[in-house]
């Protein structure tokens, strides 16, 4: 029987795996490494993270170590391209030789004192502890007031609209006005999209570099004081949520500025979708709340992600029924463990108890450190 099974081979799962290996805690990661990043993010994308957002709790296999091996400097690679980040993660996995089983979990059940895990390759595993580190994959969110107005087949979420060359010589409306909306806008234009329209309910964010140093301080504080966020008053929690929101949502990275302000990009601040009608030419006639009417071939919703634990398809109904959740999030203790002994959740799913910082890779090392402490105790 396995001591620990990690479900998910993205940054949170891989960081935890490397940390557990260092601690000599036996475990296996189930998943396809960085698959969401490779398949659900577009070619040419830049990340908002810095080189200090590396994956090694021990501080050995850092991004700077990777750069040094290749004779590069931080200044040469920031802003970090998606392809560069994926290269770093592949190098990290080579250096750490992680135990990864490339399959998908189809069913997770809790037995008396262990978990029974079925995989899509026919394997059946037994584990004393399970860490769910699935990231964003199951939680793309488009508001119902948008989906109710758009006909099926004419819209897709950003995480499914990643082959941007498919929109060459087409007209696209993007709904949403934060970083991803403008990132997709720039990339679509550069892939030959004829016209990109962008509708959002607020003023246009400023093109100004985001500063994340204070967030690193917060996640490091949580690493030493795990209950720090949950001990804040409701007003205190909201203050940090707003501060993070303002840093990440009220600013657009400067590298987008010139790429957005082009003749074939039209911005519609303080607007929202009012109606969408299929024309005889199979395009969409769109009307916005400002009264403007535009014609497009497809709509992309850049409306983010929203955790809803019940959307995890591999959770057995009996396990899900016994799992305590609030606002769609699993309720977690100071080491990311749910009310079901031995079952942990991290990444975006830890956001309610540990703060919204855990939706970002800046928090991978703190997550691994705290979960690792708990699992190490249970391995002795």
Automatic annotation (TrEMBL):
Name of the protein this chain belongs to: Cation diffusion facilitator CzcD-associated flavoprotein CzcO
Taxonomy, superkingdom: Bacteria
Cited InterPro entries: FAD/NAD-bd_sf
A Pfam family that the UniProt record links to this protein: Pyr_redox_3
